[in-house]
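I am writing to request your help with a piece of structural work I have in hand. What I wish to show you is a protein chain and, alongside it, a tokenised description of its three-dimensional fold. Could you please explain, in whatever detail you think fit, how the structure tokens follow from the sequence? You will find the record immediately after this paragraph.
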Amino acid sequence: MSAYAALTGAGYRAQVRDRTTLFFTFAFPLLFLVVFGLIFRGQAVEESGLSYLSYTAAGVLSWGVANAAVFGIAFTLMQWRTDDILRLIRMSPAPLSAVIGSRYAIALVVGAVQSLLFVGVAMLPVFGLRPASGWPLLIPVLILGITTFLLLGVIIGSFADTPESVAAVANFLMLPMAFLSGSFFPLDSMPSWLQKVSLAMPLRYLNDAVSHALAGRGDSSDVWTGCAGLLVFALVFGTVAVKTFRWTRSS
């Protein structure tokens, strides 16, 4: 526990000192909310009759939380390995679980602040989001989503050795996934074959679960299906992450 506490404290201090990254972590999802909220203000999706905001707010929130979890740990592991910090940690009594667990705690805090800020802005009169009665389900859904995408970030951070490679690989995965999973545009208005392709992407399950919990789209089965899908991906990513984790560039 002492190793976990020390790593968490060090990670927290590094996080708050990097003001630029901290700002864009929270501002980037809000930027998409403002853009899509103003463009599609007052418009509804023909297939469901629900407002575009019901889709885009939930989708952008899901993408923002997932993006922060992936990039946060991927960049940290890459930098720690480059600076030989991971090698020093390996020589100490601190286990791998303390390294990942410390970053997990920080990712949960970042995700909670992102969600509160995002929903608060979305509820302003200019956007008019009204959270559904099942909004408390957001808590377990987002926790599971952060877990899943943090483990994906561990894999990326274990393979990538430079900031450029982390950014390239993470963006290669996260940006197409955002468009194909319905984060920016409703899947209901996309071709049926594309909707089926999205089932192979973890962000689709997070989007569906958050959409019901936050905006009331679909029914409660979307939450449980989304959680089940995220759990499967978390188990797969976790297995791969353990097998591919590197303390140094060579091992």
Notes: The first helix runs from residue 2 to 17. The two ends are 25 Å apart (CA to CA).
